[in-house]
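WARN retry 2 of 3 for item q-0093 after timeout on previous attempt; input resubmitted unchanged.
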Amino acid sequence: MNAPSLSQIKQVAAPYPGLRPFCHEEAEIFFGREPHTDQLLEKLQHAHFIAVVGPSGCGKSSLVRAGMIAGLETGFLVDAGASWRIVEMRPGDQPIDRLADALLAPCALGPERGQGPNEAAILRAMLRRGPLGLVEILRETPLHPAGNMLLLVDQFEEIFRFREQGNADVAEAFVMLLLASATQREVPIYVVITMRSDFLGDCPLFTGLPEAINESQFLTPRLSREQIRAAIVGPARVFGGNVEPALVN
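OK item q-0093 returned
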């Protein structure tokens, strides 16, 4: 595949993002993970829940954002189409409240739900009603007939810390909401979590979570030498530059 021209690059200011993860608008400079992106999309064809697992700093978030999400919006998931609402969040210290806020983002349900002062409170109340709270919200917020929702819960391991702080019931309710949303088929909701592999042993703390992860876990592969080379050289070429072979080595 040929690298895009400078005129095709949107919202990309530099060839490398630095230490932060790639975002999905930076797919044009995301190189080296193409086979892994294809594998993730193939998994998503057959499962509405995927756990992307790996050690800290291995590129999980970048793979999902600049690889998988960019592929979804291009229409690579043939059965689902190219119409997607993307909800991105981290559990933090208030997972249900954070989900409600994320649902009001412009790339999620913001255009339909609006930004009224009480809208976030309404969504929080609906999410707290039970495991199908998100499904209920989508019932009341009709999307495009061919529309899908992808809920990305980045750094999912934060839910274990939240539980340890004495919020076991809320943590359990949040995990049950994720699993129920991905299991039902009334509305098209896909759930992807990224999680550090050293927290896998904590998953049995939540009912149904080990089973869901066993069915659709994606262990983030290590980049090969050629893939690392592509990740270094590709972004520079997109911006009309090059990298000396000695520096690449």
